[in-house]
Amino acid sequence: MTDAEPAADNDTDSGPTSLPERVLALQAVDTEADQLALQRERHPLREQLGTLSEQLRQWERRRSALRDRIDELGTAIEQAEERGAELSAHKARLEQQMKTVIAPREAEALMHEIATIDGQRDELDTHELEALEEQAQRDDELAEHLRGEESIRTAVRRADEAVVGAVGDIDRQLAALDERRTALRAEVPASLLSTYDRKRAALGVAAAQLVGRQCQGCHLELSAAEVDTVKDEAAATGVTDCPQCGRLLVV
To answer: pTM of the full predicted structure?
Structure first.
Protein backbone atom coordinates (compact mmCIF):
# COMPACT_ATOMS: atom_id res chain seq x y z
CA MET A 1 0.00 0.00 0.00
CA THR A 2 1.54 3.34 -1.07
CA ASP A 3 -1.27 5.80 -0.35
CA ALA A 4 -0.11 8.65 1.82
CA GLU A 5 -1.90 9.13 5.07
CA PRO A 6 -4.22 12.19 5.06
CA ALA A 7 -3.03 15.15 7.06
CA ALA A 8 -4.11 15.05 10.67
CA ASP A 9 -6.88 17.38 11.77
CA ASN A 10 -6.13 20.18 14.20
CA ASP A 11 -9.08 19.36 16.48
CA THR A 12 -8.81 17.36 19.67
CA ASP A 13 -11.31 14.63 18.70
CA SER A 14 -10.55 11.38 20.46
CA GLY A 15 -11.37 9.30 17.36
CA PRO A 16 -8.82 7.31 15.36
CA THR A 17 -6.00 9.52 14.11
CA SER A 18 -3.72 7.15 12.20
CA LEU A 19 -4.63 5.35 8.98
CA PRO A 20 -4.45 1.87 10.58
CA GLU A 21 -6.77 3.04 13.37
CA ARG A 22 -9.22 4.43 10.84
CA VAL A 23 -9.27 1.20 8.85
CA LEU A 24 -9.86 -0.85 11.98
CA ALA A 25 -12.53 1.59 13.17
CA LEU A 26 -14.26 1.37 9.78
CA GLN A 27 -14.21 -2.41 9.97
CA ALA A 28 -15.56 -2.32 13.52
CA VAL A 29 -18.44 -0.10 12.40
CA ASP A 30 -19.22 -2.37 9.43
CA THR A 31 -19.05 -5.48 11.61
CA GLU A 32 -21.41 -3.98 14.16
CA ALA A 33 -23.77 -2.90 11.38
CA ASP A 34 -23.72 -6.41 9.92
CA GLN A 35 -24.55 -7.88 13.30
CA LEU A 36 -27.37 -5.41 13.84
CA ALA A 37 -28.78 -6.07 10.37
CA LEU A 38 -28.76 -9.81 11.07
CA GLN A 39 -30.36 -9.18 14.47
CA ARG A 40 -32.99 -7.06 12.74
CA GLU A 41 -33.75 -9.80 10.23
CA ARG A 42 -33.79 -12.65 12.76
CA HIS A 43 -35.28 -10.86 15.74
CA PRO A 44 -37.17 -13.34 17.96
CA LEU A 45 -40.24 -11.12 17.83
CA ARG A 46 -40.38 -11.68 14.07
CA GLU A 47 -40.79 -15.41 14.65
CA GLN A 48 -43.64 -14.75 17.07
CA LEU A 49 -45.24 -12.40 14.54
CA GLY A 50 -44.82 -15.01 11.82
CA THR A 51 -46.48 -17.67 13.94
CA LEU A 52 -49.42 -15.43 14.80
CA SER A 53 -49.74 -14.25 11.19
CA GLU A 54 -49.93 -17.85 10.01
CA GLN A 55 -52.60 -18.55 12.63
CA LEU A 56 -54.54 -15.56 11.27
CA ARG A 57 -54.20 -16.86 7.71
CA GLN A 58 -55.47 -20.26 8.82
CA TRP A 59 -58.36 -18.57 10.61
CA GLU A 60 -59.23 -16.63 7.46
CA ARG A 61 -59.04 -19.77 5.33
CA ARG A 62 -61.40 -21.54 7.71
CA ARG A 63 -63.78 -18.58 7.64
CA SER A 64 -63.75 -18.57 3.83
CA ALA A 65 -64.30 -22.33 3.70
CA LEU A 66 -67.29 -22.10 6.03
CA ARG A 67 -68.82 -19.24 4.09
CA ASP A 68 -68.28 -21.03 0.77
CA ARG A 69 -69.90 -24.19 2.12
CA ILE A 70 -72.86 -22.23 3.49
CA ASP A 71 -73.29 -20.61 0.09
CA GLU A 72 -73.09 -24.01 -1.63
CA LEU A 73 -75.72 -25.41 0.70
CA GLY A 74 -77.93 -22.38 0.16
CA THR A 75 -77.72 -22.89 -3.59
CA ALA A 76 -78.47 -26.59 -3.20
CA ILE A 77 -81.52 -25.84 -1.01
CA GLU A 78 -82.77 -23.24 -3.47
CA GLN A 79 -82.36 -25.65 -6.37
CA ALA A 80 -84.13 -28.40 -4.39
CA GLU A 81 -87.06 -26.10 -3.69
CA GLU A 82 -87.30 -25.13 -7.35
CA ARG A 83 -87.12 -28.76 -8.44
CA GLY A 84 -89.64 -29.71 -5.80
CA ALA A 85 -92.05 -27.08 -7.08
CA GLU A 86 -91.63 -28.43 -10.61
CA LEU A 87 -92.35 -31.99 -9.44
CA SER A 88 -95.37 -30.85 -7.46
CA ALA A 89 -96.74 -29.00 -10.45
CA HIS A 90 -96.16 -32.00 -12.69
CA LYS A 91 -97.84 -34.30 -10.19
CA ALA A 92 -100.81 -31.95 -9.94
CA ARG A 93 -101.21 -32.06 -13.73
CA LEU A 94 -101.06 -35.86 -13.73
CA GLU A 95 -103.62 -36.09 -10.94
CA GLN A 96 -105.90 -33.75 -12.85
CA GLN A 97 -105.43 -35.90 -15.91
CA MET A 98 -106.31 -39.00 -13.91
CA LYS A 99 -109.80 -37.60 -13.39
CA THR A 100 -110.49 -37.76 -17.14
CA VAL A 101 -108.86 -41.11 -17.88
CA ILE A 102 -111.15 -44.08 -18.61
CA ALA A 103 -108.80 -46.71 -20.01
CA PRO A 104 -107.23 -48.85 -17.23
CA ARG A 105 -103.89 -49.10 -18.99
CA GLU A 106 -103.62 -45.33 -19.31
CA ALA A 107 -104.63 -44.90 -15.70
CA GLU A 108 -102.00 -47.44 -14.64
CA ALA A 109 -99.31 -45.53 -16.58
CA LEU A 110 -100.32 -42.27 -14.94
CA MET A 111 -100.27 -43.87 -11.50
CA HIS A 112 -96.79 -45.25 -12.17
CA GLU A 113 -95.57 -41.82 -13.24
CA ILE A 114 -97.09 -40.24 -10.14
CA ALA A 115 -95.38 -42.85 -7.96
CA THR A 116 -92.09 -42.09 -9.68
CA ILE A 117 -92.57 -38.39 -8.97
CA ASP A 118 -93.35 -39.19 -5.34
CA GLY A 119 -90.11 -41.18 -5.10
CA GLN A 120 -88.14 -38.37 -6.66
CA ARG A 121 -89.76 -35.88 -4.32
CA ASP A 122 -89.01 -38.02 -1.26
CA GLU A 123 -85.37 -38.28 -2.30
CA LEU A 124 -85.25 -34.56 -3.01
CA ASP A 125 -86.81 -33.74 0.37
CA THR A 126 -84.26 -35.96 2.10
CA HIS A 127 -81.35 -34.17 0.41
CA GLU A 128 -82.89 -30.79 1.14
CA LEU A 129 -83.36 -31.68 4.81
CA GLU A 130 -79.75 -32.85 5.04
CA ALA A 131 -78.61 -29.61 3.42
CA LEU A 132 -80.71 -27.56 5.82
CA GLU A 133 -79.29 -29.42 8.82
CA GLU A 134 -75.71 -29.00 7.61
CA GLN A 135 -76.34 -25.36 6.80
CA ALA A 136 -77.56 -24.75 10.36
CA GLN A 137 -74.49 -26.58 11.69
CA ARG A 138 -72.14 -24.55 9.51
CA ASP A 139 -73.88 -21.34 10.52
CA ASP A 140 -73.23 -22.20 14.17
CA GLU A 141 -69.60 -23.07 13.41
CA LEU A 142 -69.12 -19.80 11.55
CA ALA A 143 -70.66 -17.79 14.39
CA GLU A 144 -68.35 -19.50 16.87
CA HIS A 145 -65.38 -19.02 14.55
CA LEU A 146 -66.07 -15.30 14.12
CA ARG A 147 -66.09 -14.80 17.88
CA GLY A 148 -62.34 -15.48 17.86
CA GLU A 149 -61.56 -12.84 15.24
CA GLU A 150 -60.92 -9.91 17.56
CA SER A 151 -58.53 -11.80 19.80
CA ILE A 152 -56.37 -13.18 16.99
CA ARG A 153 -56.24 -9.88 15.12
CA THR A 154 -55.35 -8.07 18.34
CA ALA A 155 -52.54 -10.55 18.99
CA VAL A 156 -51.15 -10.04 15.47
CA ARG A 157 -51.39 -6.25 15.78
CA ARG A 158 -49.59 -6.22 19.13
CA ALA A 159 -46.88 -8.55 17.82
CA ASP A 160 -46.43 -6.32 14.79
CA GLU A 161 -46.17 -3.24 17.00
CA ALA A 162 -43.55 -5.02 19.12
CA VAL A 163 -41.52 -5.83 16.01
CA VAL A 164 -41.79 -2.25 14.77
CA GLY A 165 -40.58 -1.00 18.14
CA ALA A 166 -37.65 -3.41 18.29
CA VAL A 167 -36.70 -2.85 14.67
CA GLY A 168 -37.04 0.90 15.09
CA ASP A 169 -34.46 0.83 17.87
CA ILE A 170 -32.09 -1.17 15.67
CA ASP A 171 -32.71 1.19 12.76
CA ARG A 172 -31.71 4.13 14.93
CA GLN A 173 -28.49 2.35 15.85
CA LEU A 174 -27.85 1.58 12.18
CA ALA A 175 -28.43 5.20 11.24
CA ALA A 176 -25.89 6.34 13.84
CA LEU A 177 -23.41 3.77 12.55
CA ASP A 178 -24.01 4.95 9.00
CA GLU A 179 -23.07 8.49 9.99
CA ARG A 180 -19.94 7.18 11.69
CA ARG A 181 -19.11 5.05 8.62
CA THR A 182 -19.45 8.04 6.30
CA ALA A 183 -17.08 10.08 8.45
CA LEU A 184 -14.52 7.27 8.62
CA ARG A 185 -14.65 6.53 4.89
CA ALA A 186 -13.92 10.19 4.19
CA GLU A 187 -10.66 9.80 6.15
CA VAL A 188 -9.40 6.75 4.20
CA PRO A 189 -7.57 7.25 0.87
CA ALA A 190 -9.71 6.37 -2.16
CA SER A 191 -7.48 3.58 -3.48
CA LEU A 192 -7.31 1.88 -0.08
CA LEU A 193 -11.07 2.34 0.33
CA SER A 194 -11.65 0.64 -3.02
CA THR A 195 -9.50 -2.29 -1.90
CA TYR A 196 -11.35 -2.43 1.40
CA ASP A 197 -14.74 -2.52 -0.34
CA ARG A 198 -13.64 -5.25 -2.72
CA LYS A 199 -12.30 -7.45 0.07
CA ARG A 200 -15.37 -6.80 2.21
CA ALA A 201 -17.65 -7.90 -0.63
CA ALA A 202 -15.64 -11.09 -1.06
CA LEU A 203 -14.76 -11.95 2.53
CA GLY A 204 -17.28 -10.14 4.73
CA VAL A 205 -14.53 -8.92 7.07
CA ALA A 206 -12.11 -6.86 5.04
CA ALA A 207 -9.57 -5.74 7.62
CA ALA A 208 -8.02 -7.33 10.68
CA GLN A 209 -5.18 -6.61 13.08
CA LEU A 210 -1.98 -8.55 13.47
CA VAL A 211 -1.67 -9.56 17.13
CA GLY A 212 1.63 -11.21 17.83
CA ARG A 213 1.97 -13.50 14.83
CA GLN A 214 -1.77 -14.13 14.38
CA CYS A 215 -4.11 -12.47 11.91
CA GLN A 216 -7.33 -11.71 13.75
CA GLY A 217 -9.30 -12.18 10.53
CA CYS A 218 -8.40 -15.78 9.70
CA HIS A 219 -6.86 -16.60 13.12
CA LEU A 220 -3.88 -18.25 11.45
CA GLU A 221 -0.32 -17.65 12.63
CA LEU A 222 2.17 -16.22 10.24
CA SER A 223 5.63 -17.60 10.02
CA ALA A 224 8.52 -15.48 11.25
CA ALA A 225 9.47 -14.73 7.66
CA GLU A 226 5.90 -13.71 6.84
CA VAL A 227 5.79 -11.43 9.86
CA ASP A 228 8.98 -9.72 8.72
CA THR A 229 7.55 -9.34 5.22
CA VAL A 230 4.23 -7.80 6.29
CA LYS A 231 6.03 -5.43 8.65
CA ASP A 232 8.24 -4.27 5.81
CA GLU A 233 5.22 -3.89 3.49
CA ALA A 234 3.27 -1.98 6.14
CA ALA A 235 6.15 0.29 7.11
CA ALA A 236 4.76 3.28 5.21
CA THR A 237 1.03 3.07 5.98
CA GLY A 238 0.67 0.42 8.67
CA VAL A 239 -1.57 -1.62 6.37
CA THR A 240 -0.77 -4.51 4.02
CA ASP A 241 -2.35 -7.83 2.96
CA CYS A 242 -2.50 -10.98 5.07
CA PRO A 243 -0.52 -13.69 3.22
CA GLN A 244 -2.91 -16.32 4.62
CA CYS A 245 -6.43 -14.93 3.96
CA GLY A 246 -5.85 -11.87 1.79
CA ARG A 247 -7.56 -9.46 4.19
CA LEU A 248 -6.13 -6.04 4.85
CA LEU A 249 -3.73 -6.59 7.72
CA VAL A 250 -3.15 -3.77 10.17
CA VAL A 251 0.32 -4.13 11.60
So the answer is: 0.61
